[in-house]
Design brief:
single chain; 162 residues; alpha/beta; Rossmann fold; 2 domains; 8 helices
Length: 162
């Protein structure tokens, strides 16, 4: 919270307005933890995939925010397991983050794929854990030089791929 409070203070100090820093920080955090944005097609894709495959969620971040946002989006029920770096003690891009998930769910990496949107965190975690990576790439960032991944730009494309 302290880092967030300093960021807010730095952002607002130039406006010459007095404000209650702790209150603004607390209010922002509460709103952040209880809000969610879903990409177009997310619910439809999760509805279909959750009936055909075992799904888990592995995310970096704080438990309070990530669990709150999953709850706000009403997504928890789609996943057999939700794994958050703060709880695991390891974060992506460390492959151990995914290896722990596989171990806890007794999943075979040869029968597992990892879907993510980050070449910085998700790709090296999946690649290091020897799991095929599917890159959600809605902005079509250049990813051709990365081996062992499948790209898609619309969530609904997954329904044709998998």
């Amino acid at each position: 919270m302290e880092v967030m409070q300093l960021s807010i203070t730095d952002s607002l100090k130039d406006y010459g307005v007095s404000f209650d820093e702790p209150l603004i920080t607390k209010s922002y955090w509460e709103l952040f933890c209880s809000s969610a944005y879903l990409e177009p097609g997310a619910i439809e894709v999760l509805d279909v995939l959750s009936k055909k495959h075992r799904l888990f969620c592995m995310t970096n971040g704080y438990s309070e925010s990530q669990r709150g946002r999953l709850k706000a989006a009403n997504l928890e029920h789609y996943f057999e397991g939700v794994f958050i770096s703060e709880e695991l003690g390891v974060a992506k891009p460390n492959p151990k983050a995914l290896e722990v998930c596989l171990e806890k769910l007794a999943l075979n990496k040869d029968e597992t794929i990892y879907i993510g949107d980050s070449l910085k965190n998700d790709y090296p975690a999946a690649n290091g854990a020897d799991i095929h990576f599917y890159l959600y790439n809605p902005t079509n960032i250049k990813a051709r030089e990365h081996k062992g991944l499948t790209e898609f730009s619309h969530l609904k494309d997954l329904l044709d791929i998998l």
